[in-house]
chitinase
Amino acid sequence: MKKIYFLLSIIVLLGISSCKKTGVIEPPAPVNPVNPPKPYVPDNSFKVIAYFPSYRDPNGVADAKYKMITHLFYAFLNPNIDGSLATLEQPSRFTTVMQKARANGVKTGISVSGTRSIFIEMAASASARKLFVKNVLSFARTNNLDGVDMDWEYPSTADGSADNYVLLMKELSDSLHKYNKFLSAAITPGVYAGSIRDGLKTEVFPSVDFFNIMVYDGIGWDKDEPIQHASYNMAVASLNYWIGTRGMPKERAVLGIPAYGKNSANASKAYRDFVAANADITLDYATIDGIQYYFNGTLTTKKKAKLAKDVANGIMFWEFYHDDNGNKSIIRAANDELGRNYN
């Protein structure tokens, strides 16, 4: 019994001694400590964005072109009505272009698009929205993406989807921002009055880091250039509306520039086709096989880049493959106007 008391005394003394060293008894460390993510801080730097559609061959874009952009979106990831996601098209191409982008310091993202009716029904259901947000976040985290772009064309006040769009974007933004991932949105140019333009409510502005304003496909809008689908005047009017009239913060406004042209029948040709046809790419029109097309040449692209630098916070191109890979590239022309180093 004495031996037992003696041993207990030693144990108590050792315990007191250890307490004196630190002042407190340290609790055991958790088995799997979880480090909370850092508070989200939006990136308000000037952006040069390009989309890469799944149907394009990555080999069709020169590696050097990646140095000319800041963000690359792979298009598209499609939702289902219940909030699940369809299988990504051409996953090997997705992997390739994301690797090329990261190797050149470009931020990566997935653009989510699909049938308008699916978006409307999915966003109207709280459970479907919740599942959609969960799945999109999981996709972004699994693939180590910097953010997500929403390309819902378009929410509208005519069918009630505008309010659900606000809910969906708020929930998606909150979820992505917890993991320091941005949320952008492709939106209407806003030059046509009506339920589509009104469908992007001002309440959504705080949830979205930047808006990719699609200022193209507007044949007939500019009476001075009726067949030009993306005139400079249209770009001015679009930014005046979103920033001036609607109060969109300028740091969230990105001006969309087309890397393709259209004819009077609304048929398209890639900008690289005009270069290949030896057209004067300082102009905004060219004739191929007897048909005249209107596009944005290098001079207009530079004017738009300057406009965006002066009043907005970025430019966006649809799409990466359409542009020329050589020294006549309009993305290169935009970079030159902006004074960006792409070597």
Notes: The CA atoms of residues 68 and 152 lie 27 Å apart. The chain is about 35% helix and 20% strand. Confidence is low (pLDDT under 50) at residues 1-33. The longest helix spans residues 2-22.
